[in-house]
Design a protein that fits this description.
eight-stranded mixed β-sheet; 11% strand; 18 strands; 22 helices; alpha/beta
């Protein structure tokens, strides 16, 4: 019996390939060419679907971009299908085995197509390919599945149908396998090997990387179109781009201390370059604080910021014109998680770093704003328009950031009758609930710190009520404007309730966006992508003024600590935004690229070379800015690698 099974097994490896070698070659080339066509069509879809980004590329650059981009497509396809091609060409001649591998190749092709489609549909949000977002997919699987099946079910059906067709015709082809061989098979094999070698190695001495695209680029738009989303995601996962900053750590720490240092602060330990404390020369100012992180608010559509006439932000315009308004403020990234991290923990996450909700929060010593206010006897409240499971923020807010109370979409009573449901929640209910909770604390004579995250202005911009249909809603921009109008109304209700409940006069309101709205942006510049509204509003406490120097989300912690004279040590990537004598700057994460601005000039970098410098490389300060950028990037990453971000025992 055993000998029989051994004989059957050995039959699989007999050297008679006249019936299957040709079909194996053709199956491999078929899937390769099919994916190559789909990748190329996807690049064309990017070009025609987003003319605001790619429409200004001249034809000569466009043709070159498509041709050179094919290298990245070949590299990606070779990487992901290569292992199955190897399996296919093992010396096993049974048709069942070939069919099994062919089915695997069909489903693998479907996965690649879904990844391309996800990158395509995500692109309007950030005007770049997906990068670190891929690392968060599993943690956000429930939210993503609801979103996909709610809006893109048709795309899943198309991919499923394609898989069925591929399997059907591949099986029919295998069943018609016929004898073959000769020189043609050798040509097929050599051609396939050449494609794999050229794609993975790039006809050079090292494999292709994102850096190769920047070596020949003439604009960031050209590079974006040249690359494909899967290639970028693969590079991100490999961390090849994240570990290449060779700037000396000690020098980086010293440079960052110089950038952040203020005469009004004490730098307690040079090994912790971001950690310091204010000189406690005055009494603590016991104000209430409400921070509202505005989902996707974009300065272009705020009349008080850009002088437009959209008419959808009357309440915010009143706040902006009567508060401390920062017209040159920047987000630290293109996703909400970056804004939350910068505002509440002072952290600018660099490309490749583990984010909150990925386990980062359980392995590093951090200090949050709620920690500082808890120590002062405050009630600290976290509210968000999203569901409890979104970004795991409900759990993180209570167990990591140490808010004493946390509420999400499920906890808010429905007040208005909306036309549709919204996974991103409704800002009116969120801010009404927040305002009334603050009123409750005020009546109980409890000082409070509150952080609220809005959501209604998140893509895809669902309809709310007829009263907020200021525009027809025929495109993304008009739907965004209608949602902005609604969200502004919710802010007006927050301020109105604060006055009615009696805590307005003693409360500092901070309004700032988490990031801009990608789907409605028309320019691909650092300022267009990262400039956000930011205002401190406390007319009974602070005089109104306009501030033009650069500030960032990471400035919130130092600003509050200085203004309120909070004596706890803190760590932050920013400085006191109200200190005119400080070095003001903003550092931004753009996927695999990092950006830095001093408010006048900006620089983008891939940790190997400068990619862009505005207004030009000839401007004085070019070398100094690159030095600051690399120092800051190195210091942040090293601080977390060596757990030198915050010392919880530093005051003891």
């Amino acid at each position: 019996m055993i000998r029989m099974y051994i004989d059957r097994f050995m039959d699989l490896f007999k050297r008679s390939y006249s019936r299957d070698i040709k079909v194996k070659i053709k199956i491999s080339l078929f899937y390769f060419l099919l994916l190559f066509i789909i990748f190329s069509l996807t690049r064309a879809a990017f070009y025609f679907s987003y003319p605001d980004v790619f429409g200004k590329l001249p034809f000569s650059e466009l043709a070159f971009t498509f041709l050179y981009g094919a290298r990245f497509d070949i590299s990606t396809i070779s990487l992901y299908l290569g292992i199955f091609a190897v399996l296919l060409f093992l010396p096993v001649k049974t048709p069942k085995y070939i069919k099994t591998v062919a089915v695997i190749m069909a489903f693998s092709s479907a996965v690649l197509i879904i990844m391309l489609a996800s990158d395509f549909f995500y692109f309007p949000e950030v005007k770049r390919h997906m990068a670190e977002e891929l690392l968060l997919v599993w943690g956000e699987k429930e939210f993503l599945l609801r979103h996909i099946f709610g809006y893109y079910w048709w795309a899943l059906l198309l991919v499923g149908g394609l898989v069925a067709v591929l399997i059907h015709f591949t099986f029919k082809f295998i069943e018609k396998c016929y004898p073959g061989g000769g020189i043609l098979n050798v040509v097929y094999m050599l051609f396939a090997a050449l494609l794999v070698f050229a794609g993975v190695r790039g006809f050079g001495n090292i494999p292709l990387s994102i850096h190769d695209a920047y070596e020949i680029k003439k604009s960031s738009q050209q590079v974006t179109l040249m690359l494909n989303g899967i290639f970028v995601q693969t590079q991100m996962l490999s961390k090849a781009q994240s570990s290449s900053n060779s700037y000396p750590k000690e020098k980086a720490f010293n440079n960052v201390i110089e950038m952040l240092h203020s005469p009004e602060e004490i730098m307690k330990n040079a090994d912790y370059p971001f950690m310091r404390a204010i000189k406690n020369e005055e009494e603590f100012k016991k104000y209430n604080v409400i921070v509202v992180l505005l989902e996707s608010w974009t300065p272009k559509y705020i009349d008080s910021m850009r002088g437009g006439n959209y008419g959808v932000t009357p309440n915010f315009d009143e706040i902006y014109n009567n508060g401390i308004a920062f017209g040159n403020a920047y987000a630290s990234g293109r996703r909400t998680v970056y804004g939350i991290s910068s505002v509440l923990m002072g952290i600018n996450f660099m490309p490749g770093m583990q984010l909150i909700s990925e386990g980062f929060e359980y392995t590093k010593n951090i200090m949050s704003l709620p920690d500082a206010f808890n120590a002062k006897g405050y009630t600290t409240l976290f509210t968000q328009a999203y569901t409890k499971k979104s970004m795991k923020m409900d759990v993180i807010a209570k167990n990591v950031l140490n808010f004493t109370e946390s509420y999400c979409q499920e906890d808010f009573p429905r007040i208005l009758e909306y036309e549709k449901q919204n996974t991103a929640g409704f800002d009116y209910e969120l801010l009404d609930f927040t305002a009334k909770k603050a009123g409750q604390y005020h009546k109980e004579n409890k000082p409070f710190f509150i952080f609220s995250l809005t959501g209604t202005t998140h893509f895809p911009y669902i309809e709310t009520l007829d009263m907020f249909k200021k525009y027809t809603g025929n495109n993304d921009e008009e739907r965004f404007l209608n949602n902005l109008y609604y969200s502004d109304y919710a802010i007006g209700n927050l301020i109105k309730t604060a006055k009615e409940e009696g805590y307005f006069d003693n409360t500092v309101f901070i309004f700032l966006a988490d990031h801009t709205s990608g789907p409605v942006l028309t320019l691909d510049t650092v300022k267009e992508k990262f400039n956000i509204p930011f205002v401190i509003y406390a007319p009974k406490i602070l005089e109104k003024r306009k501030i033009d120097y650069a500030v960032s989300q990471a400035d919130v912690i130092p600003t509050l600590c200085h203004f309120m004279n909070i004596d706890a040590s803190f760590s932050a990537c920013g400085v006191n935004a109200l200190d005119e004598s400080a070095q003001h700057f903003a550092f931004m994460n753009d996927g695999t690229v990092i950006a830095f601005t001093d408010g006048r000039n900006y620089m983008t970098h891939d940790r190997k070379n400068v990619l862009e410098y505005f207004p030009s490389k000839d401007i004085s300060g070019y070398n100094e800015m690159e030095e600051k950028l690399l120092s800051f990037d190195k210091a942040v990453t090293a601080a977390f690698i060596y757990n030198k971000w915050y010392d919880p025992y530093g005051d003891k």
